[in-house]
């Protein structure tokens, strides 16, 4: 018996029991749709996080004061004073793997403009800060090195600050805002960036010369952070080693001394977030795959019922010359048809469900072709695996006993 006839017989058998065949497919449909949707959500989240990290500066390096032990108590790094302006100047002048560098100091307080006020913080930075953090100016201009040298009371503000301090829509350029009673003249407005993955408002930002914040607001001589950009993302490790060498020399640390500073790169953050999202995606896919197993068991059960119901038919086919391999192929084709058809419907539903999740819940999604092919391949293998034993049982029936079966 050729393959075409076997396929027609299997198709006819399924069409005679349409409802039962559909209910058997349901487990496969749900399983495939769930796997595709879960993987799409997981990969979408991963890409969204990578995009956010890239917007922060994919090759950004952050240097912070290192936590110290005093009297057996580990101190908060923010309370340490190990980073000085001399360190910033040494890194700016002596490193070859950094394309930009800026000191960072910050102070929290209340911003006031006319009758409007808004709680925020003002960050003291250098002129390279915009390049490092991938920020751009919408109107106005960046403060200059001269402003830094003279500790000028000028600032740049983000969209959130503009909306709250100038709700009438007036141009803030040239206006004065007061921060903890210190007046700052607005010289620039930053382009909006919105919220990041962690729910932080990236437009709630005020930038001023670091010298101004250090002298007029904080009255300190140390830096809270130093941020820099490596020439390329691949050069981050070389830049980190170079920064470590310069700072250890500046701080006069012995070879046996522990670093009194901490260096973090965006690569570390990216790797950590990717590992977390990959783990969650795998977990979601495994949970969704349980539906495929349940669907496979459903196929096996229905094929058992089909073999039992068609025992006499099997006996008649064998008595007129059908071989065991023909009977095996017939029932195996039925199982594979059920799983493939269910898989195709599941793929369509899974892709549709992913777009619905994106449209309704506004979750980021990314449907990778390999996830569709993998789901389809697994459901086909499930049909073969769970359909084999009932098909083998049918092929092993004794023709005489099968014809006599009531």
Jot down its keywords.
2 domains, 12 strands, two-stranded antiparallel ribbon, single chain, elongated, 406 residues
Radius of gyration: 34 Å
Q: Write down the overall mean pLDDT.
A: 84
Overall geometric form: elongated
- Number of β-strand runs: 12
Integer tally of domains: 2
* H-E string: HHEEEHEEHEHEHEEEHEHEHHHHH
- Helix count, per DSSP? 13
Strand-pairing-aware structural class? alpha+beta
End-to-end gap: 26 Å
**Mind summarizing the main beta sheet?**
6 strands, mixed, barrel
Beta-strand content estimate: 15-25%
Percent in helix = 55-70%
Q: In which order are the strands of the major sheet placed?
A: 4-5-10-7-9-8
**Are there runs of 5+ residues with pLDDT below 50, and where?**
69-73
Summarize the structure.
With 406 residues, this protein is α+β, with helices and mostly antiparallel strands.
Q: How would you explain this protein's 3D organization?
A:
The chain is α+β, with helices and mostly antiparallel strands and 406 residues long. The protein folds into 2 domains: 3-52 and 272-404, no CATH class; 81-259, no CATH class. Helix content is 56%, strand content 18%. It contains 13 helices and 12 strands. It has helices at residues 3-15, 18-57, 85-94, 129-132, 145-149, 159-165, 210-218, 236-250, 266-309, 311-319, 324-360, 369-395, 399-404; strands at residues 60-65, 69-70, 73-74, 98-113, 116-125, 137-140, 154-157, 176-179, 182-190, 206-209, 225-230, 261-265. The chain has a 6-stranded mixed β-barrel with strand order 4-5-10-7-9-8. Strands 2-3 form a two-stranded antiparallel ribbon. The longest helix is centred in the last third of the chain and has 44 residues, at 266-309. The model is unreliable at 69-73 (pLDDT under 50).
């Amino acid at each position: 018996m050729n393959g075409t006839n076997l396929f027609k017989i299997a198709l006819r058998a399924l069409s005679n029991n349409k409802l039962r065949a559909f209910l058997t497919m349901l487990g496969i449909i749900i399983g495939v749709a769930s796997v595709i949707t879960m993987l799409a959500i997981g990969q979408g989240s991963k890409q969204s996080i990578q995009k956010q990290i890239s917007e922060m500066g994919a090759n950004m390096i952050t240097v912070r004061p290192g936590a110290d032990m005093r009297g057996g108590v580990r101190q908060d790094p923010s309370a340490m004073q190990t980073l000085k302006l001399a360190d910033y100047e040494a890194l700016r002048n002596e490193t070859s793997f950094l394309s930009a560098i800026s000191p960072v100091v910050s102070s929290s307080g209340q911003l006031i403009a006319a009758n409007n006020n808004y709680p925020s913080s003002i960050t003291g930075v250098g002129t390279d800060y915009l390049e490092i953090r991938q920020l751009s100016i919408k109107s106005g201009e960046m403060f200059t090195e001269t402003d830094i040298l003279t500790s000028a009371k000028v600032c740049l503000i983000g969209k959130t600050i503009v909306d709250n301090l100038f709700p009438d829509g007036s141009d803030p350029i040239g206006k004065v805002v007061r921060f903890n009673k210190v007046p700052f003249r607005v010289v620039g407005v930053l382009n909006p960036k919105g919220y990041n993955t962690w729910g932080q408002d990236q437009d709630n930002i005020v930038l001023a010369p670091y010298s101004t914040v250090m002298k007029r607001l904080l009255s300190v001589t140390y830096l809270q952070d130093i941020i820099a950009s490596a020439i390329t993302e691949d050069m981050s490790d070389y830049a980190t080693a170079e920064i470590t060498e310069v700072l250890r020399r500046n701080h006069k640390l012995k070879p046996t001394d522990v670093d009194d500073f901490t260096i973090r790169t965006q690569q570390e953050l990216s790797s950590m977030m990717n590992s977390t999202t990959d783990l969650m995606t795998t977990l979601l896919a495994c949970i969704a795959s349980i539906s495929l197993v349940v669907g496979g068991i459903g196929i096996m059960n229905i094929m058992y019922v089909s073999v039992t119901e068609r025992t006499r038919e099997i006996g008649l086919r064998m008595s007129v010359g059908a071989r065991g391999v023909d009977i095996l192929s017939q029932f195996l084709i039925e199982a594979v048809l059920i799983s493939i058809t269910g898989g195709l419907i599941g793929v369509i539903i899974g892709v549709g469900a992913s777009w619905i999740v994106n449209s309704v819940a506004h979750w980021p999604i990314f449907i990778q072709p390999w996830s569709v092919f993998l789901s389809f391949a697994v459901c086909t293998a499930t049909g073969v695996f769970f359909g084999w034993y009932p098909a083998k049982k049918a092929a092993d029936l004794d023709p005489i006993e099968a014809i006599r079966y009531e």
